[in-house]
From TrEMBL, chain B:
Species in which this protein is naturally found: Vogesella margarita
Name listed for the protein in its UniProt record: Alpha-ketoacid dehydrogenase subunit beta
Keyword Oxidoreductase: yes
Record NCBIfam families: PRK09212.1
Keywords: Oxidoreductase, Thiamine pyrophosphate
InterPro entries: THDP-binding, Transketo_C/PFOR_II, Transketolase-like_Pyr-bd, Transketolase_C
Xref: SUPFAM superfamilies: Thiamin diphosphate-binding fold (THDP-binding), TK C-terminal domain-like
Domain of life (superkingdom): Bacteria
The organism's taxonomic lineage, starting at the top: Bacteria, Pseudomonadati, Pseudomonadota, Betaproteobacteria, Neisseriales
Obligatory cofactor(s): thiamine diphosphate
Limits of the Transketolase-like pyrimidine-binding domain: 4-179
One Pfam assignment: Transket_pyr
């Protein structure tokens, strides 16, 4: 079960998009996992033959083995029924102790069940013996296992490769997840904040000229310039692109910008647009459109949730003038853009009306200082003065 | 509202008691000229004179015995024992006389005695000044055992204790003396019968008292960041124990972690766990767990002392293990 963000503890496998024995290659979407961020497509990170697919519709902790992949050409050793998958020739993932525990418990004969769960099972008429291992310590059956068993399972569509399940996310769950992540951020991260105003006129003019000749679906939005400008600045100042882990900074592998997307039912996600520095503007525009659509309709990919090395939030035309963000741990920076609006501005000693954009930086003081932060903002400003070379 | 230290709250409580009742006096080692070894009685000798603020010889059994006698004779003594480790010298008077006389006389003699003691570790005072023995006293019928953890309780429990016709022991934690808190001026009295829920949560009950309470509250704050909502219960009174409040909480959370600076074996935490097993077994969705002090005399060295006493990280880890055993 992949970790789809620092705030994720468990996930529920809802569908396999491949069968045991299928050949898979790195990047293929092989399964759908339901999290508080909705249904997420899980990509595989290995080439080979997939096998030992875990059962669907079970909530499991992050790190649980969902399947094993053996290199192509290697003969399959079919495990005896009931045997642990760990006996495979070359298991790619390790079996964690927490998975071993239920198996041991299952052999003890007597059902491990908490007193409260036993009572509830009686009340609800749940057959405890049929439950198998539970979610508690050593596989003990707890209240939540009994209650889950008592609830009739929703009819799940027959798994067929290529189709996607769209599970609605639970806004209350998402609110709790946001509360946990943002609470942790404010508790642990000594934020410092910098703000600046950017003359956005050159960008507005360049966009107007570019879009004039384009059909509506290919027109660029200002957001794509902001995204690319951030990537340019991060190339020059890689100290801001990465994570604070184990008491130190770890640089991100690639500039994967988490783009904050507000969801219609409330809540937000910030999935990654990968390698922003290496993509052209039209390409980025397509990626961004598609990402927003999938974030709102369901179908984000595991790599998009797990990979962001920094977050950028842009409030857009209807947003506020400026925003001071809260860092999404373990990232170390969030860059915020306000609304572009005409403002009095001094150009060559004369007052002029220009399009002005507020930019802000909230950064982790354990990693960088304000001086460097100021240089990052200056680099973003500088990049936006030359949209033609972005 | 006013912000005061726990020490100041204790001092105000004693001063108010002395002003309110001429039968009331303070007696103990270094309570007068020195102002109390934790400076709780500082300034009281000047204000009330040596008749009512009495320095005594270093003889705990004598002090407690004189307190029992004074109480029997109609006075309202507040006896201070420097640290509960030394109270062992007075155990005969406390248990065989103070706690027993009312029963042995068929209710003819009440012993309205209040004994204040410093308790607990964390200030590098080594094994002979750092133990938490309130759990032992909670074993004894005939005593009330109070463990104020907040400035409000430090300020108001004494008056309730003095109003009680039977002996009451008050254990003040040495680390709390310097702790500050908001004192609500509109509160003029507290009960000495009930535990209190200091923070509400639905996932796990953290049951503690004394200096373990602020540690539990800090742990609850951390756990909230992980999405675990802890119900934090301040026992306030170890005898008689308010089992109903604990069980009511466990009925909501189905999980219980007891945090007690006393040693684990034969402790008040063991008593609570036993009551839960007895009266709330079918509410429990996980084993009752405890975070207690290591079963060694409290060490002097700072790191070793910290390692021996319950810490916030221990509480967080134990709570997490109860909630997310597989993770």
């Amino acid at each position: 079960m992949p970790s789809l963000g620092a705030d994720m503890e468990t996930g529920k496998l809802v569908q396999w998009l491949v069968k045991a024995g299928d050949r898979v290659k790195s990047g293929d979407v092989v399964a759908v996992v339901e999290t508080h961020k909705g249904a997420i497509d899980v990509e595989i990170f290995l080439d080979g033959i997939i096998d030992n697919l875990a059962a669907v519709d079970k909530e499991v902790p992050v790190g649980t083995v969902l399947a094993t992949v053996r290199p192509p050409g290697e003969t399959a050793i079919m495990p005896a029924p009931g045997a642990a998958p760990a006996v495979l020739a070359t298991p790619v993932s390790v079996v964690t102790p927490s998975e071993v525990a239920p198996r041991i418990a299952a052999n003890l004969g007597r059902t491990r069940i908490s007193p409260a769960a036993r009572l509830r099972a009686q009340q609800l008429g749940v057959d405890v013996a049929a439950l198998g291992a539970g979610s508690g310590e050593g596989g003990a059956i707890g209240l939540r296992d009994v209650e889950a068993a008592a609830r009739p399972l929703p009819a799940s569509p027959p798994p067929s490769a290529g189709s996607t399940v769209h599970c609605g996310f639970d806004p209350a769950q998402m609110r709790l997840a946001i509360a946990a992540a943002m609470g942790r951020s404010k508790r642990e991260i000594p934020h410092y904040y910098l703000t600046d105003s950017i003359d956005f006129t050159a960008a507005t003019q360049w966009l107007a000229a570019w879009n004039a000749g384009q059909p509506p679906e290919q027109r660029l939005l200002p957001a794509v310039l902001l995204l690319k400008a951030c990537a340019r600045a991060l190339q020059a100042y890689p100290q801001f692109n990465g994570f604070y882990l184990d008491g130190g900074f770890q640089a991100g592998k690639g500039i994967h910008i988490g783009w904050a997307i507000a969801l219609r039912g409330g809540g937000l996600v910030a999935p990654a647009i990968h390698d922003v520095d290496r993509q052209g503007l039209p390409q980025l525009m397509t990626a961004m459109r598609e990402l927003v659509q999938r974030a709102r309709a369901g179908g984000l990919r595991s790599s998009e949730l797990g990979d962001p090395t920094i977050t950028v939030t842009s409030l857009g035309e209807r947003g506020a003038e400026s925003v001071l963000g809260v860092i999404y741990p373990p990232q170390v920076v969030i860059i915020g853009f306000g609304r572009v609006q005409p403002r009095p501005w001094v150009v060559n000693g004369q007052l002029a009306v220009r399009d002005v954009l507020a930019v802000s930086l909230a950064a982790d003081h354990r990693v960088t200082d304000g001086h460097l932060g100021g240089q990052l903002l200056a680099a973003i400003n500088e990049a936006l003065q030359h949209p033609d070379i972005l | 509202m006013s912000r005061i230290t726990y020490r100041e709250a204790c001092r105000q409580a004693i001063r108010a008691a002395l002003l309110a009742d001429p039968r009331c006096f303070v007696m103990g080692e270094d309570v007068g000229r020195y102002g109390g070894c934790y400076a709780v009685t500082k300034g009281l000798l000047e204000e009330f004179g040596p008749q009512r603020i009495r320095d005594t010889p270093l003889a705990e059994n004598g002090i407690a015995g004189a307190g029992v006698g004074a109480a029997l004779a109609g006075l309202r003594p507040i006896v201070e024992i420097m640290t509960c480790n030394f109270s062992l010298l007075a155990l005969d008077q406390i248990m065989n006389n103070a706690a027993s006389l009312s029963h042995m006389s068929g209710g003819q003699f009440a012993v309205p005695l209040v004994i204040r003691m410093a308790t607990g570790g964390g200030r590098q005072l080594a094994a002979q000044h750092s133990h938490s023995l309130e759990g032992w006293y909670a074993h004894i019928p005939g005593l009330k055992v109070l463990v104020p953890a907040t400035v409000e309780d430090a300020r108001h429990m004494l008056a309730a204790a003095l109003a009680d016709p039977n002996p009451v022991l008050i254990f003040e934690h040495i680390v709390l003396y310097n702790a500050e808190g908001e004192l609500d001026d509109t509160v003029t009295a507290v009960d000495i019968a009930h535990a209190k829920v200091r923070r509400s949560g639905s996932d796990i009950s953290l049951v503690s008292y004394g200096n373990s309470l602020p540690k539990c509250l800090a742990a609850a704050e951390q756990l909230a960041g992980e999405g675990i909502q802890a119900d934090v219960i301040d026992l306030r009174v170890l005898r008689p124990l308010d089992g109903a409040t604990i069980i009511e909480s466990v009925r909501r959370t189905h999980r219980c972690l007891i945090v007690d600076e006393g040693w684990r074996s034969g402790s008040i935490s063991a008593e609570i766990a036993a009551r839960l097993a007895d009266e709330a077994l079918y509410e429990l969705d996980a084993p009752v767990r405890r975070v207690c002090s290591a079963e060694v005399p409290v060490p002097y060295a700072a790191q070793m002392e910290a390692a021996a006493l319950p810490q916030v990280a221990d509480i967080v880890a134990a709570a997490r293990a109860l909630l997310r055993p597989a993770g």
